[in-house]
Amino acid sequence: MAHDTHRPMDYPGNLIVVAAPSGAGKSSLVKALQELDAHIHPSISHTTRAPRGQEKHGREYFFASESEFDAMVQAQAFVEWAHVHGKRYGTSKKAIEERIAQGSDVILEIDFQGALQIRQAFANAVLVFILPPGWDELRSRLERRGEDSAEVIEMRLKNAAIEMAHVSKFDFVIINELFERALFDLKAVVHAQRLKYAAQRRARADTFESLHIS
Ligand code: GDP
Ligand code: ADP
Ligand code: 5GP
What we know:
It is an enzyme of class 2 (transferase). Keywords: ATP-binding, Cytoplasm, Kinase, Nucleotide-binding, Transferase. One of its GO terms (cellular component) is cytosol. It comes from Verminephrobacter eiseniae (strain EF01-2). By secondary structure, this protein is of the alpha/beta class. It has a domain at about 1-45 and about 105-210: Rossmann fold. The protein is built from nine helices and nine strands. It has helices spanning about 25-35, 65-75, 95-100, 110-120, 135-145, 150-165, 180-195, 195-205, 205-210; strands at about 15-20, 40, 45, 60-65, 80-85, 85-90, 105-110, 125-130, 170-175. The protein is globular, with a radius of gyration of 18 Å. The termini are far apart. The structure holds guanosine-5'-diphosphate, adenosine-5'-diphosphate and guanosine-5'-monophosphate (5GP).
């Protein structure tokens, strides 16, 4: 998709983009981070896949029909969208722009294709890739989660190899072996993002002024 690129100073909030193969622990880590940090808001994606057991429209995802999704693509309502595991997923402009314009940080759990599109559109997005500690553990996490059929698990494992081949394009890599360690690492990335010059210049404008620096 073609985009205007927003410069680092265009929005006061940060965009934290987290990608991982299915089962690596992305959703668990992002959920735990949000419980610890009230200043991070999730971006709720649209998807054409069906809701799983406890999922609620507007909470985990906005569930859309193929034609509703098409209409949003036509209307240029997405900042990014991609085909993932045979379905379409996308981040609407509405899901992120208002929040970052207000200065909130927004976290996106999206696939690698979407992550790379976000980087094109938002110069200050930080891209984090979560890796599982190994293939056997990835498979057993998908099985233990118990949300997907055997065929879907096989497809997700096959896609995992394709997704992980793009890890070098990301800014940070977190290996989710010990959950608490991985959560600590993710918190560190968010914290570092808030210490960037542009963010500090804005958040601590009075200090910069009193020091007579621009
Ligand atoms: P999970 O992999 O088990 O977390 O399963 P999900 O159904 O929640 O996510 C399916 C895929 O869609 C994952 O690779 C997500 O990263 C990706 N995804 C979720 N939201 C978005 C989005 O807004 N945009 C894009 N491009 N991908 C997304
Ligand atoms: P994703 O969102 O990447 O698909 P989930 O967050 O749903 O992954 O995690 C997949 C499964 O693995 C879940 O059952 C979760 O509880 C479990 N899990 C996540 N992180 C770890 C970890 N560090 N050690 C063991 N199990 C984990
Ligand atoms: P699930 O179907 O298990 O909820 O998600 C499967 C994959 O789709 C995950 O890897 C998730 O990150 C990705 N995904 C979810 N929402 C989006 C989105 O809006 N855009 C993109 N590109 N990928 C998404």
